[in-house]
Amino acid sequence: MAESVKPNLFAKVRITKRPKRRATLGRLRGRSLGLRSYLIALILLVPAAAGQGCATQGQATRAAEQAAMKSEDDTACRQQGAPDSPAYHACRKELAEARARAQQAAIQEQKRRDFDRVLGAGTEGQSNY
User: Fold this and answer.
1) Cα 64 → chain centroid
2) What is the overall mean pLDDT for the chain?
3) What pLDDT score was predicted for residue 81?
4) Which of 17, 27, 42, 65 is 20 to 30 Å from the Cα of 84, by its Cα?
5) Contact 128, 117 (CB under 8 A)
6) What are the boundaries of each domain within the chain?
7) 3-state secondary structure (DSSP) of residue 2
8) What is the DSSP string of 43-106?
9) Which residues of the chain carry a pLDDT beneath 70?
10) CA-to-CA separations, 60 to 46, 63, 71, in angstroms, rounded
11) Per-residue pLDDT, 66
């Protein structure tokens, strides 16, 4: 009968799986993930904000150029007549069409130069590379 019941020496000792350490690691992971998310957002938003600033600067420049052109056209066409006269409107229309033709000619010249640079140099055996 001496063998029937052995006292359990570890009955009152509880073995746990280190919950404090896991909680600490979990908190650190959460912090690093949060910090990482903020850094990624910062990296993406700063160039976007800078690009937006450049875009609005371009729009402002374009608006200033258009205002200057309108002023020049107005000055040139006031010699033809009053701002409400048919001669004034015909002058403004003629200047707008001339500006459109000049812009189209500049685009065609740029296309011709691009073609010569890309394909023209390759056909002569010369390369800019």
Assistant:
1) 23
2) 76
3) 83
4) 65
5) yes
6) 24-121
7) coil
8) HHHHHHHHHHHHHHHHHHHHHHHHHHHHHHHHHHHTTTS-TTSHHHHHHHHHHHHHHHHHHHHH
9) 1-33, 53-56, 120-129
10) 21, 5, 16
11) 87
- The Cα–Cα gap between 87 and 69 comes to 19
Tokens of 6: 């052995």
The total of other beta-carbon atoms located within 10 Å of residue 12's CB is 6
Q: Which residue has the tokens 């280190």?
A: 18
Residue of 103, 95, 98, 100 whose CA lies nearest to 74: 95
Distance CA 73, CA 94 (A): 10
What span, in angstroms and rounded, lies between the C-alpha atoms of 88 and 79? 8
In the structure encoding, which two tokens stand for residue 103, read together?
A: 């812009």
